Amino acid sequence: MESSQATTAKPPPLDLSHHYSTITKLRQPSDLKKFYKFFQIPGIGNLAGGLPNPSFFPYDTLEAQAAKPERWTPTPNEPPSPDAVADTMAAATISSAPNGGSRYTDKSSGPSPESEKKSWGLNLFGSQKKSPRDDDDHNNPKSANHISIPKVRPDADLSKRIDLATALQYGTAEGYPPLLSFIRHFTRNHLHPDVPYAGGPEVVLSCGSTDGMAKTLELLTDPWNPATDAIASRPHLLVEKFLYPNVLAQSRPRGIGIVPVEIDDEGMLVDGPGGLAAVLASWDDRRGRRPHLMYTVTMGHNPTSGVLSVKRRREIYALCQKYDIIIIEDDPYWFLQYPSAETEEAVSRGQTVPVEKHQSEKDSSYTPTKSSGYPFLDSLVPSYLSMDVDGRVVRLDTFSKTIAPGCRLGWVTAQPEFIERIVRIAETSTQQPSGFVQAMVSELLLGSQPPSITASFASLPSKKEQLAFEGWDTSGWVRWLEGLRGTYERRMSRMARILDDGAHLLQLKQPVRSKPTGQDDTRGDKTDDDWRVVTKTQLYDFAWPRGGMFVWLRIRFPSHPLWMARGAPGGSLPRVDGLALGTALLAFCTHRPHLVLPAPGAMFAADEVVLARDAWAYYRLCFAAESEENVDAASRRFVDALHAFWRIKDVERIEELVEEFRSAGVEGGLAVEGMGNLAGADYAC
User: Fold this and answer.
1) How far is CA 678 from CA 229, 331, 588, in A?
2) Rounded Cα gap, residues 89 and 107, in angstroms
3) Number of other CB atoms surrounding residue 84 within 10 Å
4) What is the mean pLDDT of residues 497-524?
5) How confident is the model at residue 211 (pLDDT cuts 50, 70, 90)?
6) What sign results for the dihedral spanned by CA atoms 369, 372, 374, 379?
7) Pick from 115, 145, 133, 206: which is nearest to 483 by CA?
8) 480 with 99: CB under 8 angstroms?
9) Helix (H, G, I), strand (E, B), or coil: what is residue 71?
10) Considering 97, 136, 627, 633, which has the largest number of Cβ atoms within 10 A of its Cβ?
11) How does the average pLDDT of the chain come out, rounded?
12) What radius of gyration, in Å, describes the C-alpha atoms of the chain?
């Protein structure tokens, strides 16, 4: 099969080795790799390697019940009409099926009967499997398939075999050969089918995005010590002003300075105060080196859920070219883009949806230069790799959101020279990811490939040619991703509607008497005409998520009746400011009857300036962590907690809540039975 990354008329990626850290420049490939090509010679007597014999492995098989790709129902790739949304909202119900069923009655949306017929026959995440016609489970999307990995498969080709003898043995740092080949094919032919440099990108497996980030920092930064190193040599990292906090924990111990960039609902800003252009143009060399790295989550940003448009990406990429910046694109949520969000938001709020918005919420300025082969993938906003003419993008992918976080499995995509250097780092650190995990994921993705495909793969004479094999069937894997997107999109929509419904607090003021008691009105009646004034206070605002797993709320604390009130005499608060109210609200939410835990915006602040300025005003709500039946209930309890919190008029009560949170009381925190977790597990990417 011809590679989608054809070299015709494409320039080679730039030599960016001047960005390498000192240790990267010194690191040599592992000498042990030279022997691996000999290990794979059929029938070789291996007296060279210090490998335990597989017969001593205590596991004879690995087995599991695994979901079919069709378990979850997809949502349409294009936004619905406003009328369809209004009709659905008027008669909104949740299907008894765990996937929530289809949302819109427009039969032109969603999978065609032909594609459904094809996808129902998929075995696991590969191709069609012949099953007995009387097997009811075969056509039941909620049923599971059994997968089994034996200790030894009798295939002499180590690049084809999925068995415990190879998966649990020492291997090369690039990753388990069958899985690496599949991921490389999916990445180069479907996920990023036309990267604009000659030869296209390469991939290496990682132990998840956190591991990929750690290796990228090792690749491109030298540790900086303020006690011994000149300030001029200090490296800096550009980030969105709110970001996944583990990146700070990885960067700061290396002495890397964090440089926040302003954002809007879409993502990183280019222009204006605090935008990327201003930050780079006004750089003060007394702070250290101008940033040569950028870390960004561009699709379903954590925590804000923005999706960066192609237009904005091009503007940012141009600035990175101008200032020679490497882009580290961490995209665990790339497949969770919600085409319905803008239309549904407008309908939910009684706003008009402009025709041009309805026609394409994705990005009207973007058309894929080369199809991925799947309408779902073509409908998504693309990666920075789609415009990476220089080879300056390092992309981090993970199975944490597509299979499970505990897999600790992902991959890094970048120009070949970067990948070769990351492999050298892996050779002396993690080596390849867990063999147990790689074996199970390999069998899940590859175990049901048609015999013609596996025969073509096995016929290739060298490991290099097998790695470059591009005949894998990825349709089941894409169908699984479509279904996951559909399930999360429905959850997002339900939470956002509940939040819209509860965004305002209505209060009745004290009675107002229109006339003195007993006075006749103009009609000659005697009346005691009391009436009340209803006030409407907006408690928060938010944009419906365009992607990801989170709703990012800005709480309007200045409208709270105790805003900037003086603290109680002898109390711990001089004034009830935004930080105090934000802390008190977090503790208050965990009390009965509310029992709900949001994630405070303070934990996502890029630095102390962002924290002090406005991080206290934000909360992140995760619609992924809770069970299906609890998403709505926990969302309503959060709204109820906000309404109740606004009725607090006692400064001492706020002080109690703040002290409770600071002393880690919070009625046991997450240990409280029935607590609704809207914070989202460990806050991770």
Assistant:
1) 43, 21, 14
2) 17
3) 19
4) 72
5) very high
6) negative
7) 115
8) no
9) helix
10) 633
11) 84
12) 28
- Quote the number of domains for the chain: 1
Backbone angles phi, psi at 106, to 5 degrees: -65, 110
Q: Percent of the chain, pLDDT > 70?
A: 78
Of 327, 329, 328, 359, nearest in space to 343 by CA: 359
Map residue 117 onto helix, strand or coil: helix
Segment holding 481, helix H or strand E? helix 475-501
Dist. CA 168–CA 235, nearest whole Å: 39
Instruction: Specify the higher pLDDT residue, 671 or 305.
Output: 305
Instruction: Output the CA–CA distances (angstroms, integers) from residue 595 to 97, 104, 591, 598, 669, in the order listed.
Output: 27, 33, 5, 10, 9
In a domain, 390, yes or no: no
User: 410: how many CB neighbours lie within 10 A of its CB?
Assistant: 23
DSSP string, 33-48: HHHHHHHTSTT----S
Structure tokens belonging to residue 356: 């041009």
Least Cα distance to 550 among 401, 380, 383 occurs for 401
The residue among 642, 662, 658, 667 whose CA lies nearest residue 568 is: 658
| Residue 483 near residue 99, CB atoms below 8 Å | yes
- Pairwise CA distance, residues 606 & 39, whole Å: 48
Q: Report CA torsion sign: 297, 299, 305, 308.
A: positive
CA distances (Å), origin 150, targets 41, 59, 589: 22, 9, 50
In a domain, 95, yes or no: no
Phi, psi of 236, deg, nearest 5: -135, 150
- Per DSSP, 389 falls in state S
Is the bond leading into 516 cis (omega within 30 degrees of zero)?
no
Is the separation of the CB atoms in 159 and 463 below 8 Å?
Answer: yes
Between vectors from CA 120 to CA 116 and to CA 125, what angle results, nearest 5°? Answer: 110
pLDDT at 440: 94
CATH number at residue 492: 3.90.1150.10
As given in the structure block, the two tokens for residue 290 are 């101008």
First-to-last C-alpha distance (Å) of the chain: 35
What is the structure's pLDDT at 44?
A: 82
* CA 184 remoteness from chain centre: 21
Looking at residue 358, its amino acid is: H
Residue 77 is encoded by which pair of tokens?
A: 């790739």
Range of the domain at 524: 485-677
Say if 443 falls within a structural domain.
Answer: no
- Averaged pLDDT for residues 368-380: 90
Contact 514, 647 (CB under 8 A): no
User: What was the pLDDT predicted at 98?
Assistant: 40
- Residues 606/611/613/617 CA torsion (nearest 10 deg): 110
Q: What is the pTM of this model?
A: 0.87
- Helix ranges, 229-340 (H): 246-251, 276-281, 310-322
Residue 289 has pLDDT above 60, yes or no: yes
| Model pLDDT for residues 64-123, shown as the tens digit of each residue | 999 988 899 999 998 887 766 656 655 443 333 344 444 444 333 344 433 333 332 233
- 466 and 184 Cβ atoms separated by less than 8 Å: no
Six token digits for residue 525: 């009646």
In a domain, 499, yes or no: yes
Report the pLDDT value the prediction gives residue 623, as an integer from 0 to 100. 96
**269-296 core/surface letters (b: 16 or more CB in 10 A; e: else):** bbeeeebbbbbbeebeeeebebbbbbbb
DSSP collapsed to 3 states, 165-224:
HHHCCCCCCCCCHHHHHHHHHHHHHHHCCCCCCCCCCEEEEECCHHHHHHHHHHHHCCCC
Side chain identity, residue 677: N
Q: Which two tokens stand for residue 385?
A: 């790799």
Higher pLDDT, 369 or 430: 430
